[in-house]
Amino acid sequence: MKKRLSTMLLTVLSLTTLALTTSACSKDTAPEKPATSSVKKTKPSFNYDKKIAAEFVEATSNDQATFIVDGKKVPVKFIGIYSPSLTQDQPLSKEANQKVNELLKNADDIQLQFDKSYGHQIKDGAYSAYVWLGNELLQTKMLASGLAILSGHTLTNSKLAQSLETASTQAKKSNAGAWAFDGYVDGATFNVTAYQAYQKNQELINAAEQAIKNAEANPTRDTLNQANAAYEAIPVDKRPSAHQKRIAQVNTAVETKEAQERQAQEAARKAEEERKKAEEAARLEQQRLAEQQAAQQQQNQQMVWIAPQSGRRYHFDPTCRGLRRANSTVQMTLQEAQAQGYTHCGYE
């Protein structure tokens, strides 16, 4: 019995020693845990209440740029706005690109602020953020210039969203940038077809403007017709109301001028008639006088008879009863008889 107990004790001691030895060996040969990595993260911190300092690198489009944040390049879309595409050569895209570069290159203090709804998402390879230039947002400056429009995103930061809305409304009221071209801003996109139609209509409006100016400077029926034709070439819903008023004024001036010309023509016609009447009267009077003179001359050359010893009358008829008692008669011209004081016989 004692021998069996001794054997059992030796076995327990051996197992205990083996377990301790194995434990020590395992502890000595276990791998080390890796040290915490010192490599900086490639994505920015998403503390939505905090602005993150950034350094501008380049504008990769009109609504996206690359910044250096914590030593890493980060592509960032300008959240909340959309500008004409430079790659698609949309109207005003060059102006928008120039504006973006001007704002970012001249900014002394650039900070990024992410939105809870979009900031942590990567869309088209870029994060979305508000871009602060000092105390002003790049987005509001672009919107105010009319070189960007609201993108239609539902933004979590209602205060910043309202500032974007206000800038857009002011640009629309003042017809700044893209808002100057009727129909170009189409919701949250740019309608190039509408822009081209606007440009064509503007050419027609400018042509009408020039034609109206010509008519105003020289109001004639021809220039008025040209102005009317140019005005009617403009689509009805695009015709400036001021053009219609000015054409009406030109029409009044033309009608007044034509009325004056008609009056002048009528006065000239009447004057011509009076002149012709006067000429005819003068001609008739001259003719009458000539005929009278001719008659007088003829009469003066007519032969008459006188009775020198029997009165002081001349006679056209030698058998006149006034000569019956004459002792003798003498024939002479009427002119000679009158010159000698003879008068016409009363019997003739």
Summarize the structure.
The protein has helices spanning 2-29, 93-105, 138-145, 158-173, 192-217, 221-232, 241-300, 334-339, and strands spanning 52-61, 64-69, 72-78, 81-82, 110-114, 127-133, 136-137, 149-150, 185-186, 189-190, 303-306, 313-315, 330-333, 343-344. The protein has 348 residues and is an alpha+beta fold.
Q: Can you describe this structure?
A:
The protein is of the alpha+beta class. It folds into 3 domains: 137 residues, OB fold (Dihydrolipoamide Acetyltransferase, E2P) (Beta Barrel); 110 residues; 43 residues. Helix content is 49%, strand content 17%. The strands form 4 sheets. The chain has a 5-stranded mixed barrel. Strand 1 and strand 2 form a beta hairpin. Helix 3 runs parallel beside helix 4, helix 5 packs antiparallel against helix 6 and helix 5 runs parallel beside helix 7.
